[in-house]
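Inverse folding, one chain.
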């Protein structure tokens, strides 16, 4: 599939310049958005003992946080379309800080759900989506590379936050750690300040003039009386168009978008749970706390290299035209790693698993949004990412708690890893088969379109049909003459309004 055309955005993206500063800011925001729920798992054992709760109950904390982060996608998309990426990200950073500082004073797990899960999660939502969206506005030719570099912020943050959280807990306890983490999350406001707005300068002015002209014309028609019912229908249509301006629901008619949506919803059922339970699983096998946290750092280091490397490979002329296949392989490879994890019975085996898991995880994350943009184009990406994230939040919410239930039921982590691996292999296989079908259909439709353009007979048939329609219109009976005269009079009035 070829990249989106240059006219998709109405301007030519710079593919560099200040865009690299935007990539830096996006890497910080995306890093916190993806990493914080993973790094938070370091506190699971201690919070579980403090509140005397089960694995599934403590797992709901990160599940609610991730689900709110993804479920807030449509709201984030609407705010970005209305105000731009910069103020939305800065407000999201403020919410993250307030949420974690408030969590330091929680006295029950329910309060922790609200502060960490909902408030901090929504703040991360206002950081994640705008950061991904603005990259598509600054880059086109180098977009896979820019996305890979921005996504590399997640493993960098994970490599830093995982041991930092353990250090903070040992010295300040989990309440003191939450206060410090709240202050650290305020750096998202600094990252958001780098998101300088970009776009065609006259587009907004032209749209305002057009809307004013439409309103004046509708007012004139309403005063004429006979067209009142038509004006009401137009008003309802304009209301739908106003909503559709912020969220393009016509994407649900897009074949490639639906394939991506179904595959990703299935994938996220097993995407986050292995990370959530990696450190607790290591502690369960007898590994000490720092060594367990170091597994997340190993995963992050490999992930850090894998994301930009995947971006470079995906940007090559051999892979980019068929990037959907590469994405499907990455998902299936991720699932295969989880299926083999129960075989890792020693700390060395866990290091090997963490290394391959980091590679597979980095490949998926580097192409997660690039493949969506490849399908729908940069202009519709803002709406697409909002609709996708709200659909994904359900499986994101259920994934870790289902894993926790399996652990509580069987007393063994291997069933959780097998469940996640099976689901992801299934998702990767589904995407590969359906993308093959989509590519075949696109090639067939393109071939038919070219054949239709090159066939003069079909063009002649269309022209004859148009002439016949005009001929029938001129042969209308006398009973339609009053309506035609009335329509012509209304047309003159409308023309007069436009000329004024």
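Residues assigned per position:
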């Amino acid at each position: 599939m070829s990249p989106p055309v240059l006219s998709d955005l109405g301007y030519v993206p710079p593919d560099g310049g200040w865009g690299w500063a935007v990539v830096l800011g996006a890497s910080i925001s995306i890093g916190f958005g993806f990493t914080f729920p993973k790094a938070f798992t370091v506190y699971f054992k201690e919070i579980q003992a403090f509140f005397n709760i089960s694995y599934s109950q403590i797992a709901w904390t990160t599940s609610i946080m991730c689900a709110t982060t993804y479920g807030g996608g449509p709201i984030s998309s609407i705010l970005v379309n209305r105000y731009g990426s910069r103020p939305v990200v800065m407000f999201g950073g403020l919410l993250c800080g307030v949420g974690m500082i408030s969590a330091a004073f929680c006295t029950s797990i329910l309060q922790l759900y609200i502060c960490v899960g909902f408030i901090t999660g929504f703040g991360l939502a206002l950081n994640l989506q705008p950061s991904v969206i603005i990259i598509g506005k600054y880059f086109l030719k180098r977009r896979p590379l820019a996305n890979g570099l921005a996504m590399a912020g997640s493993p960098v943050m994970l490599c830093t936050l995982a041991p930092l959280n353990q250090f903070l807990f040992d010295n300040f306890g989990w309440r003191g750690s939450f206060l410090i983490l709240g202050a650290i999350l305020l750096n998202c406001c600094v990252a958001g300040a780098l998101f300088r707005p970009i776009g065609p300068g006259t587009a907004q002015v032209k749209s305002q003039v057009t809307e004013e002209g439409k309103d004046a014309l509708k007012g004139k028609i309403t005063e004429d009386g006979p067209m009142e019912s038509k004006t009401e229908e137009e008003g309802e249509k304009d209301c739908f168009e106003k909503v559709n301006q912020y969220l393009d629901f016509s994407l649900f008619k897009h074949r490639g978008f639906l394939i991506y949506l179904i595959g990703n919803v299935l994938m996220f059922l097993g995407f986050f749970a292995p990370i959530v339970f990696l450190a607790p699983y290591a502690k369960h096998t007898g590994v000490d706390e720092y060594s367990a946290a170091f597994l997340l750092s190993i995963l992050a280091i490999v992930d850090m290299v894998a994301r930009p490397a995947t971006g470079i490979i995906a940007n090559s002329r051999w892979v980019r035209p068929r990037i959907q296949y590469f994405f499907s392989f990455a998902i299936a490879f991720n699932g295969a790693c989880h299926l083999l994890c129960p075989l890792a019975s020693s700390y060395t085996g866990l290091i090997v698993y963490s290394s391959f898991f980091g590679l597979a995880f980095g490949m998926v994350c580097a192409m997660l949004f690039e493949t969506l943009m490849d399908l729908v184009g940069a202009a519709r990406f803002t709406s697409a990412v909002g609709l996708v994230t709200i659909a994904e939040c359900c499986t994101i919410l259920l994934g870790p708690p289902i894993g926790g239930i399996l652990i509580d039921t069987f007393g063994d982590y291997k069933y959780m890893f097998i469940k996640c691996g099976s689901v992801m292999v299934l998702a990767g296989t589904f995407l590969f088969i359906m993308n093959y079908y989509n590519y075949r259909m696109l090639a067939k439709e393109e071939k038919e379109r070219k054949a239709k353009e090159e066939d003069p007979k079909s063009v002649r048939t269309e022209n004859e049909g148009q002439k016949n329609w005009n001929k029938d219109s001129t042969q209308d009976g006398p009973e339609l003459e009053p309506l035609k005269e009335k329509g012509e009079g209304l047309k003159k009035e409308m023309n007069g309004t436009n000329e004024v």
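Residues 85 and 267 are 28 Å apart (CA to CA). The first helix runs from residue 19 to 39.
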